[in-house]
């Protein structure tokens, strides 16, 4: 440790081959601190910068010219470290996906949420790897149906690239679903073939004032992903208004997570649930999503709002008609 009263420091401007001048030692420690910080070694970097600080205190007892020269050098190194850190943080990590070829990802956790819904967690190559999926886009998953034939189907992960080392899929498994069979049979340790990213949706923070989202059933997953990205970005003030339709209460996917986001971000996220077969005690919508529901819970048509749709084909068709009748132009709408 370099510090005040360290007799081994000797003269600050001279040193033998085996005992370099303390000024050089101090500069070397500063360089090491910069390198450790730039490489993400927070604890090592902090220890080294403490040593630099101690060395700077020692310089107070030296000649003005020497102290100033070394201080300037150390400040320059610190500035270089800050630049390296900024450069390092600004570099977007390379994603693990390949848009042309399928890649294998290991299933590390499978959690049953309801009788026909499960959450699947897949590991990425390293704990700091990112999937590399743009917000609102999806992946193609390949598997085998009950007859052994290959099947490929799109799914939207509920995780973001901020969730390092993994990605998750919430899958509703239908009795006759071909890809549902594959997921139903998957066990921890199995591998899933994935290709991507896919999709036309592109999002930049603040590109609209507000989103109106119409989701039905498993169509909630792209809405969930986009909403998470917006709410977890402190500089994004976009408002989100979601109407989420299902048959029964038990069919509502990600309800706990959605309700938690409403509680955490009450000024930026609103949800209106709609059920065809609601429980006896229910304060949401009943039946199918109507024009009145959209008019009540969505922002009015404007150039700075966008309506996103994702649900079964009959629902998408009906919602497109409702939106057109309410004055939302085609340019204001996007269907996943």
UniProtKB/TrEMBL annotation:
Chain segments annotated as transmembrane: 66-87
Domain FAD-binding FR-type: 100-204
Gene Ontology cellular component terms for the protein in this record: mitochondrial outer membrane
Binding-site residues, FAD: 154-155, 170, 172, 179-180, 221
BP terms from Gene Ontology: electron transport chain
Cofactor(s) this protein requires: FAD
Name of the protein in question: NADH-cytochrome b5 reductase
């Amino acid at each position: 440790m370099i510090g005040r009263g360290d007799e081994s420091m000797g003269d600050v401007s001279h040193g033998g081959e085996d005992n370099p001048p303390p000024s050089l030692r101090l500069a070397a420690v500063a360089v090491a601190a910069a390198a450790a910080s730039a490489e993400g070694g927070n604890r090592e970097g902090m220890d080294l910068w403490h040593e630099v600080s101690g060395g700077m205190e020692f310089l107070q007892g030296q000649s003005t010219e020497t102290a100033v020269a070394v201080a300037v050098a150390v400040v320059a190194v610190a500035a270089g470290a800050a630049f390296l850190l900024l450069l390092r943080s600004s570099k977007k990590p390379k994603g693990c996906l390949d848009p042309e070829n399928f890649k294998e990802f290991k299933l590390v956790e499978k959690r049953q949420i309801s009788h026909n819904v499960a959450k699947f967690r897949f590991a990425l190559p390293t704990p700091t790897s990112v999937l590399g999926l743009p917000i609102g886009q999806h992946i193609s998953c390949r598997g085998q149906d009950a007859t052994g034939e290959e099947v490929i189907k799109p799914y939207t992960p509920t995780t973001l690239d901020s969730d390092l080392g993994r990605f998750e899929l919430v899958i509703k498994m239908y009795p006759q679903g071909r890809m549902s069979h594959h997921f139903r049979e998957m066990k921890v340790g199995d591998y899933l073939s994935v290709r991507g990213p896919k999709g036309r949706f592109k999002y930049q923070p603040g590109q609209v004032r507000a989103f109106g989202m119409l989701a039905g059933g498993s169509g909630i997953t792209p809405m969930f992903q986009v909403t998470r990205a917006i709410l977890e970005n402190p500089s994004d003030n976009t408002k989100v208004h979601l109407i989420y339709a299902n048959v029964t209460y038990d069919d509502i996917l990600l309800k706990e997570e959605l309700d938690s986001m409403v509680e955490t971000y009450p000024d930026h996220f609103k949800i209106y649930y709609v059920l065809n077969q609601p429980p006896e005690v229910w304060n949401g919508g009943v039946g199918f999503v109507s024009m009145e529901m959209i008019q009540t819970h969505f922002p009015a048509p404007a150039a700075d709002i966008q309506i996103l749709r994702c649900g079964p084909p009959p629902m998408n068709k009906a919602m497109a008609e409702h939106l057109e009748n309410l004055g939302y132009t085609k340019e204001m709408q996007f269907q996943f």
